[in-house]
């Protein structure tokens, strides 16, 4: 396998179904190295896979729902109006970062062992590595790599951080927000920004008391909202993931959103995702420039002047940037 060290060779092998090469390819992407830049031209220009972001608070059942959706998607998937089985499903699980290794804790992959030996399924954990918003910075590039490896459907499960992770909405094709009975009222949802994020609401653990109330609160929130610019009203689906209940309804909603994106809304969505990715790249580049700047003697000298009261911090920074 040493011959597969070159990024282009890894990509060719991954397209041929080599799972080891695909794993190494995603490692190149996640490490944010110079090699990952050489992959961008090949991966980002490939036809994008349909990606479903699964987000929500901890304990909502995201991992179990993701696990059961893998099997459901393999059995039924609608593309171009014709029902057919999907050939392979990719899963990106964004796990908390290990404080010791800096890698993913792999909790979700442990819970998805049922699919470990299925050649049609590829599951990869990505560490947040301190990234706020519940999403790893490597997810957009990982999605592009899976698309280039001819995956058609990818599920992205984010870290639960107590409120809705907003980053996933600008990364995946569709965003599903998972809530449970007793999750809170409509005002809390509005404050969390759910209206702007969700393309689909999933009331999981719907066999528990309060499921009808949760659905009602979500419907009221949508009724009171001004409506989305793209004209899509997020469906509300009830599921009991542990019993495989409601999974077909989730896939029906996915199919409906795919149809919706075939019009102008799809072009606008793709443009928004591209702009968001470019903003993140630009911000990362500026952050590296700032890190380099603050490590110079000129910065130390300017900080000393600010501390001594001989100049103000805004003027000092402006002088440094202009230099």
N-end to C-end Cα span: 48 Å
Low-confidence stretches: 78-82, 97-108, 129-134
User: Describe the biggest sheet?
Assistant: 7 strands, parallel
Total number of helical segments? 13
**Gross morphology:** globular
Average pLDDT over all residues: 81
**What's the CATH topology label of the largest domain?**
Rossmann fold
Helix content, binned percent: 40-55%
Topology:
Layout: H1 7-15, H2 19-30, H3 34-43, E1 50-56, H4 62-75, E2 77-79, E3 82-84, E4 89-95, H5 107-111, E5 121-127, H6 139-148, E6 153-157, E7 174-179, H7 186-192, H8 194-197, E8 200-203, H9 211-224, E9 236-238, H10 247-261, H11 264-293, H12 297-308, H13 313-322
Parallel strand pairs: 1-6, 1-7, 4-5, 4-6, 7-8, 8-9
Antiparallel strand pairs: 2-3
Task: Describe what this molecule looks like in 3D.
The protein has 323 residues and is an alpha/beta fold. The chain folds into three domains: 45 residues, no CATH class; 217 residues, P-loop containing nucleotide triphosphate hydrolases (Rossmann fold), CATH 3.40.50.300; 46 residues, no CATH class. Helix content is 47%, strand content 14%. It has 13 helices and nine strands. Strands 5-4-6-1-7-8-9 form a seven-stranded parallel β-sheet, with helices on both faces. A two-stranded antiparallel sheet has the order 2-3. The longest helix is centred in the C-terminal third of the chain and has 30 residues. It starts with 6 loop residues before the first helix and ends with a helix.
């Amino acid at each position: 396998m040493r011959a597969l060290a070159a990024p282009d060779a890894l990509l060719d092998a991954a397209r041929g179904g080599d799972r080891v090469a695909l794993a190494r390819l995603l490692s190149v992407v996640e490490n944010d190295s110079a090699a990952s830049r050489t992959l961008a031209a090949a991966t980002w220009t490939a036809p994008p896979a349909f990606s479903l972001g699964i987000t929500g608070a901890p304990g909502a059942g995201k991992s179990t729902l993701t696990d059961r959706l893998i099997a459901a998607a393999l059995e039924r998937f609608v593309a171009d109006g014709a029902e057919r089985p999907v050939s392979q499903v990719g899963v990106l699980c964004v796990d908390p970062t290990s404080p010791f290794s800096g890698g993913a804790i792999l909790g979700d992959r442990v819970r998805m062992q049922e699919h470990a030996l299925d050649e049609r399924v590829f599951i990869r954990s990505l560490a947040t590595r301190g990234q706020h918003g519940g999403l790893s910075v490597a997810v957009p590039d990982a999605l592009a790599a899976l698309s280039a490896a001819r995956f058609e459907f990818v599920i992205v499960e984010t870290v639960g951080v107590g409120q809705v992770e907003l980053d996933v909405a600008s990364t995946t094709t569709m965003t599903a927000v998972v809530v449970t009975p007793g999750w809170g009222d409509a005002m809390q949802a509005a404050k969390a920004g759910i209206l702007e994020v969700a393309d689909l609401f999933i009331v999981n653990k719907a066999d528990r008391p309060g499921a009808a109330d949760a659905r009602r609160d979500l419907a009221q929130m949508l009724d009171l909202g001004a409506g989305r610019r793209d004209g899509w009203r997020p469906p509300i689906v009830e599921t009991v993931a542990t019993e495989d209940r409601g999974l077909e309804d989730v896939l029906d909603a996915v199919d409906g959103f795919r149809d919706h994106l075939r019009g102008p809304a799809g072009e606008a969505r793709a443009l928004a995702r591209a702009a968001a990715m470019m903003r993140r790249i630009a911000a990362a580049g500026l952050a590296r420039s700032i890190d380099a700047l603050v490590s110079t003697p000129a910065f130390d000298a300017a900080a000393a002047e600010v501390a001594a009261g001989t100049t103000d911090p805004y003027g000092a920074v402006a002088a440094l940037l202009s230099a």
